[in-house]
Design a protein that fits this description.
Length: 496
C-alpha cells in the first residue's frame, strides 16, 4: 500500500482538482455559450441531465457506498480485492439493464429521438462511470493521481473544443468532448486498477452483504437527482431550449461554487469512515467541526459576492444573450451554502456513522418539494421558477439532516461559531459595492464595451471583497484561517 497522505495534502489535491473545474469552464463556457447559443447549450445540458439519470440508476449509489466499504478494509489487500470485485460485478450487471432501457427510450420518446446522435454519444458516460471505479481511488485516498489525470483530460477537452466546435450545429461534437473531459480519465482508472487490487477471480463472493446498503444509497442518489437534474429536464419539456439555456448558465456558476465549497468534504468520507471503524471518536468529532467551519468560511462569501455581481458575472461568462439568466442565478445561489452544509451533515457525519437512512429521508423530502414547486412555478416563471424549487429543496434537505443531528450539533455549537464570517462580510460588501459604483462611472468615459467593463468590475471588486474578508477573519483570529493562512503569511513576511 502506498504512503498515506494527510487530510491537508488530500484537501490541497482535491482543491486543485476543484479549482481546475472552476478554471476550465471559465475558459470554455464563454466561447461555447456564444458559439452554440442558448438553444444549442440547452440541447446539450438537457441530454446531459437525462443521461445522468441513467448513469445514476446504473451506479446504484455505489460511488458513495464503495468509498465507505473499501475504506473499511483498505489495510487488507485480499478483503479489499474481493470487495471491489463484488461491487464491480453488481455495477456491470445493472449497467447492462440500463443500456437496454436507454436504447428503448431513444426509440420511443420523441423528444429524445430528435437528438438521438447526441444522446448516443453522451450515453457512453454510463459505461465509463461504471468501469472507472472512482470510489476505489477515493477510498485509498489517491487524490494526487485523481487530480493529475483529471486535469490532463480537462486540458485535452479544452483543446478539442477550440479545434472542433465552431458553429451552433456542432453541439453533438461538444457533447462528446464533454464526456471526454468529465469521465475520459476513467479509462485509465480501469487499466490501473491492478496496482491496488488483485484482478484474478478470488471466489467465495458474498454479493448479498452489499445489497441492502446499496439499495439505501441508490434511493438517496435517486432522490438527490430529482432536485439536481429534474429541474432542467422539466424546464426543457415545459419551457423549451432557450429557458433551459438561461437556467443552465446560472446552474453552471452555482455548480462551480458548490464544488469549491465541498472540496474538503470530498476527501473526508474515507478518513471519517476509517475513524469510525477504528473507534476513534475524538478524531472524528474534531475533523467534523473543522469541516463545518471551512464550509461556513467558504460558502457565505462566494454566495454573497456572486449574488451582488450576478449581472456582471453572467455578462462576462456567457455574453449579453444570456442577460435573463442573472435573475435565476441570484435566486439559486443560496444553494451553495445549503449544499455545503448537507455535504458535511449527510455524507461526512451521517453516512460514516451508518445512518444513511436519515440521509435518504432528507433527500426524499427535498425531492418531493422540488417536484411540487417545479410543477407549480416553471409554467409561470420559467428558469426562475426552477431556481426557486431547487433552493427550497436544498434547504429542506439541510433542515431534515439538522433535526437528525440535533444532539451532535448542540454538542459542538460552542466550538463552531459562525459570527466570525458575518462580521467579516459587512465591510467586504460595503467596500466592493462602492468600488463597483465608482469604477462603473469612471469606465463610462471609455469605449471598453460591455465585456471589458464587466471584466474590470469583477476583477476589482473580487480583489477588494475577498481581500477584506480574509483580512478581517485573520484579525478576528478565526480558527480555520488562523490555522491554514496565518502560517504562510508569517513565512512571507519573514522572507520580505
Amino acid at each position: 500500500m502506498e504512503k498515506e497522505h494527510s487530510v491537508t495534502f488530500n484537501f490541497i489535491m482535491n482543491f486543485i482538482l476543484t479549482a481546475s473545474s472552476f478554471l476550465f469552464p471559465l475558459i470554455t463556457f464563454p466561447y461555447v455559450s456564444r458559439t452554440l447559443l442558448p438553444a444549442g447549450n440547452g440541447k446539450v445540458d438537457s441530454a446531459m441531465a437525462v443521461v445522468s439519470y441513467f448513469t445514476m440508476v446504473a451506479m446504484l449509489g455505489i460511488p458513495t457506498y464503495g468509498i465507505r466499504a473499501c475504506a473499511q478494509v483498505r489495510d487488507d489487500k485480499e478483503k479489499l480485492s474481493r470487495t471491489v470485485q463484488e461491487i464491480l460485478a453488481i455495477n456491470l450487471g445493472m449497467a447492462v439493464l440500463v443500456y437496454v432501457v436507454f436504447g428503448a427510450s431513444l426509440a420511443w420518446v420523441p423528444k429524445f429521438a430528435e437528438n438521438r446522435t447526441l444522446f448516443l454519444v453522451m450515453g457512453t458516460a454510463i459505461l465509463l462511470n461504471v468501469i472507472g471505479v472512482s470510489w476505489l481511488y477515493a477510498a485509498l485516498e489517491q487524490y494526487a493521481y485523481i487530480t493529475a489525470i483529471s486535469m490532463v483530460m480537462k486540458a485535452l477537452g479544452v483543446v478539442l473544443m477550440f479545434l472542433f466546435v465552431h458553429r451552433p450545429e456542432d453541439f453533438v461534437i461538444y457533447g462528446g468532448i464533454t464526456v471526454i473531459s468529465n469521465v475520459g480519465s476513467y479509462i485509465f482508472n480501469f487499466l490501473r486498477m491492478g496496482k491496488y487490487v488483485i484482478i484474478k477471480p478470488l471466489g467465495n463472493y458474498n454479493f448479498k452483504r452489499h445489497m441492502k446498503p446499496i439499495a439505501i444509497f441508490c434511493a438517496m442518489t435517486v432522490a438527490t437527482s430529482i432536485y439536481t437534474n429534474l429541474d432542467i429536464v422539466m424546464l426543457n419539456f415545459i419551457s423549451g431550449d432557450v429557458q433551459t439555456g438561461y437556467y443552465s448558465a446560472s446552474v453552471k456558476v452555482k455548480t462551480i461554487l458548490a464544488s469549491l465549497v465541498t472540496s474538503l468534504g470530498a476527501v473526508l468520507l474515507p478518513r471519517l469512515s476509517y475513524y469510525i471503524e477504528k473507534g476513534m471518536q475524538k478524531e472524528f468529532k474534531q475533523m467534523a467541526v473543522k469541516a463545518l467551519q471551512f464550509v461556513w468560511m467558504m460558502a457565505l462569501p462566494v454566495t454573497i459576492y456572486f449574488m451582488m455581481f450576478a449581472k456582471e458575472s453572467i455578462g462576462f461568462l456567457s455574453g449579453q444573450a444570456y442577460a435573463p439568466a442573472a435573475e435565476p442565478m441570484c435566486i439559486i445561489l443560496p444553494t451553495v451554502v445549503w449544499i455545503g452544509l448537507s455535504n458535511i451533515f449527510g455524507m461526512q457525519i451521517l453516512v460514516p456513522t451508518g445512518r444513511e437512512k436519515e440521509v435518504m429521508k432528507s433527500v426524499l423530502a427535498g425531492g418531493m418539494v422540488d417536484l411540487a414547486l417545479n410543477l407549480a412555478l416553471i409554467p409561470k416563471l420559467g428558469a426562475s421558477g426552477a431556481a426557486i424549487g431547487t433552493v427550497m429543496a436544498e434547504l429542506v434537505v439541510v433542515l431534515v439532516q439538522m433535526i437528525a443531528l440535533k444532539g451532535f450539533l448542540s454538542d459542538i455549537q460552542r466550538t463552531c461559531r459562525i459570527s466570525y464570517y458575518f462580521v467579516a462580510l459587512l465591510p467586504a460588501m460595503a467596500v466592493s459595492w462602492l468600488v463597483k459604483k465608482t469604477l462603473t462611472q469612471m469606465l463610462a468615459a471609455y469605449d471598453l464595451g460591455v465585456q471589458g467593463t464587466n471584466f474590470l468590475v469583477l476583477a476589482a471588486t473580487a480583489a477588494m471583497f475577498f481581500g477584506i474578508y480574509l483580512s478581517v477573519l485573520l484579525l478576528e483570529k478565526e480558527p480555520v484561517s488562523r490555522e491554514y493562512l496565518a502560517p504562510y503569511l508569517q513565512k512571507w513576511k519573514r522572507k520580505t
